[in-house]
Amino acid sequence: MRKTFIYGTIILVVILLMSFSYIIFKTVTKETLGVLLNLKKRYLLLTFLFLILYHTFDNLRLYILSRAVNLKYSLFYGYVMSFVNTFGATVTPAHVGGELAAVYMLLRKGASVHKVMSIVTMKTISGLFFFILGLPIFLWHLYRNPQQVIPVLQIFIGVVVVFGLAYVGGKILFQKSISRPSVKKIKEGLKRYIYYMKIFGYKRKGYFLGSILSSCGLYISFLLIAPALAKSFGRDEGFFELFLSQISLLYVIFMSPTPGGSGVGELGGLAVFAAFLEPFELGVFVILWRLISQYISALIGGVLFTLCLIKDLRR
To answer: Which residues cross the membrane (predicted)?
Structure first.
């Protein structure tokens, strides 16, 4: 896991340097500095409040699922986990590292592997519910505003093709033999895993519903960051339209093969937010939006993850 996160961080930094450099070169003018100096501070603060709300719902989702199987930890530790999970999700393709980080952080609390895996599985399923519920809205927005959504999908497809070819090439060049666990161990582990999954299905339905509502609150908070940031730029119109326009971005960012949707999020942001901002505002808006909505939390999570690793290695 550590090597995965290290390699992912290196790739993330490279892609960010490239995408941010492109945005600055294409959009930054003399007027851009004036925009930054005149940002409305109360709405900028509101974006950070939505970010805190995002982590609060993320904390609650895992906290509720953990309590369902009698795994207890403090709410403060839950916030630490949320930031660490964001780091893991940001340095891995399709945000899968968020689940890996959650497994590690929950195992630190002394829970069994099977219990932790059931919690993380239900966390993933509850998160998918929002994307299922949001699919009709995405299709409706695609029908009404194809000029916004189609460029985002084209960027996503292009990145998938490039990274898919790079992955296949890497597998051919660096193929390694993998030791396989015994069939007996797999069967025993699967039985215990299914046991905990049944607990959510038959005895803890209310807990699972709570995790679904928390997941919806999490993604809604994420989507509210951009409209609040637009208000700090003095854009009072189109709040709801701006909220909806991000649906396509949300899908491609969370499915992107690049770490944390890097590159896709930035270039897709240019395509989506162009309809709401002046050209000299657009680039700095996208950079601020990505920093606030993801990269600041990932940086904090990376520091916390490192501290947890150091503490565990000293034991």
So the answer is: 6-25, 45-64, 76-107, 119-143, 149-174, 206-226, 238-255, 267-289, 295-313
- In tens, the pLDDT along 62-120 reads 999 999 888 999 999 999 999 999 999 999 887 888 888 999 999 999 888 878 888 88
Q: Helices 205-232 and 41-68 meet at what angle, rounded to 10?
A: 170
How many residues does this entry show for the chain?
315
Q: Tell me: the pLDDT tens digits for 258-311?
A: 898 999 999 999 999 998 999 999 999 999 999 999 999 999 999 999 999 999
Domain limits for position 132: 2-173+180-314
C-alpha pair distances (Å), 109 with each of 82, 113, 280, 284: 15, 11, 49, 41
How many CA atoms within 13 Å lie on the side-chain side of 131?
13
Judge residue 290's burial from the number of C-beta atoms within 10 Å of its C-beta, 0-12 exposed, 13-18 middle, 19 or more buried.
buried
Q: Distance between CA 70 and CA 110 in Å, rounded? A: 12
**What whole-number distance in Å separates Cα of residue 283 and Cα of residue 20?**
9
Tokens of 43: 């709405």
